[in-house]
């Protein structure tokens, strides 16, 4: 809890209340809460003064598209709510009339798309989509609870208030639907409404988008990134592609930034044109904005300081290689302006802006705050975390006066929040005063004494690697080598120097998440977590051209360092991973004999089933068939003789990792005499949520490690 703060239980909720989401009012006096009841989800309001809760009317929330089902109006007196229509009626029922042919066509154009799951498949699923996605918009007046409905029903995927609260931007979906792409590609209508529900301006009407240009710099061929300018009462902006969305087209300018001011009865104004693809836009005031352009083919990000009023570039804020963790400037710090919107923070009328970042370095991560003088480009580090702590800023109160809130922790100290007051004329926060705000206790007292060490080592080709090694409490090397467990996730790079950079935080308190491999240290295992597994392709070479060779080299280096340190028995080492880490695990077991067993959770193992690209691979199967086949453990199942545990959610909706991937690999292993166990968790998606599933996967992992690793027969 927090010292000096009175804690209490909220009264008025139903017994054993199930809360989906919540949102604080702009003035911090009330909390809107989505509460699940027997017949639907309804909105409740909690008073921060007396901690009492009351229901706001009888209307049911439609949370089909997530948390955006309710939003506070800027004045904090009402909420814009996405309701389930009162006359929705019974849900659709599949019948004999729905048994009709399903027809799709190809018009001769190349149209590669990723493998998506849970798509619409026929007329019946279209009716289901209409039924569950259709909503009615309305305002709830918080003091009275009265509801005022707006406009007509529709499939609303997004709503947002103008900063002055006088207008709404409303996005809705329309037919025709598609059976090959997700709903985000269905026809869209983007409109400006007034708060009475009247359409003031149609901003864009986007057709069905089944065609996507190839290339890492390609984008939607239509208008995109609609939003409200944070520095204006009611000005909408969007990005328009000047290359038709085709990143491979040679053009002088790729995108342009357009603006349209209330009352929206004039032509839109061109504000900026970008040479590269336009990305993040952060607003400051009428004469200061910060616009990012990127070129993914060369891993470049450039941020420009721009004057919207005079339509001219003032300077370059940074120009970075996105793989270079050590050179990363961090993120611009923002704060609320008079309109209640986040703009780039500057206490001196944009003479100075501030950055905050993780501070990756050869020593690990040490978060920082930098002051950046815009006129000269000079940076000054005004604060940085210092040993033995990991300190991460979380809220900025007044950087000009040197006050902010940080989360502070160490290897042995539980994370808590502190008010930080910087000492004037002292660099890097030397002499800063920390006032503790919260007093959370160790949630893992049974794990005290577990040791943590960042281990640095080198691959055979000279690439620097690292991982975080956890050893059981009380363990000494004289006790002899332990069974070990290596957990990893491969990452692609275009530079071996960048691949060797550290991204760990050696001073962080160890958190044991629900599916973390670190927990096995309590059962006597040495655990190397987040082991570096870079896959590098420099120059014209693509990283995956030598995927298997580099994968094995990474594994060999990790095994060697653990054995050389004397903490691991080379004959009792397991490897594991989730998703792309599971793919890595199966590949390692099929291509080397370094491990006693493997744990592969929610992976994909046959790359011919993801033929239009996967992870960061942009080539199709037909462009690089050897790469796809060489990388597919399914193709090499006859060589996979090391015991492997396959765990997968039966409702995995992640692109590419169909549950079938684990089922088919298991069948291949069984048919070829492999040692494998397949565990399918009911109703689980790509990550696991149910208590039963979490405990079950932990038990399965434990039993597998005990049988094939710790107690492995010589």
What does the model show?
The protein starts with 17 loop residues before the first strand and ends with a helix. It has 714 residues and is mostly beta strands. Strand 38, helix 4 (580-591) and strand 39 (597-601) form a beta-alpha-beta unit. 12% of the residues lie in helices and 37% in strands. The strands form 10 sheets. An 8-stranded mixed sheet has the order 32-33-36-34-38-39-40-41, sandwiched between helices.
Fraction in beta strands? 35-45%
Chain-averaged pLDDT: 94
Supply the number of structural domains: 4
N→C terminal distance = 51 Å
Low-confidence stretches: none
- How many whole angstroms does the radius of gyration measure? 28 Å
Q: From the 3D coordinates, which CATH architecture of the largest domain would you assign? A: 3-Layer(aba) Sandwich
Biggest beta-sheet profile: 8 strands, mixed
CATH topology of the largest domain: Rossmann fold
The number of distinct helices, counting runs of at least 4 residues, comes to: 7
- Mass-distribution shape: globular
CATH 4th-level superfamily of the largest domain: Alpha/Beta hydrolase fold, catalytic domain
Structural class per helix/strand content? mainly beta
Number of strands: 41
Helix content: 10-25%
Biggest sheet, strands in spatial order? 32-33-36-34-38-39-40-41
What is the CATH domain class of the largest domain? Alpha Beta
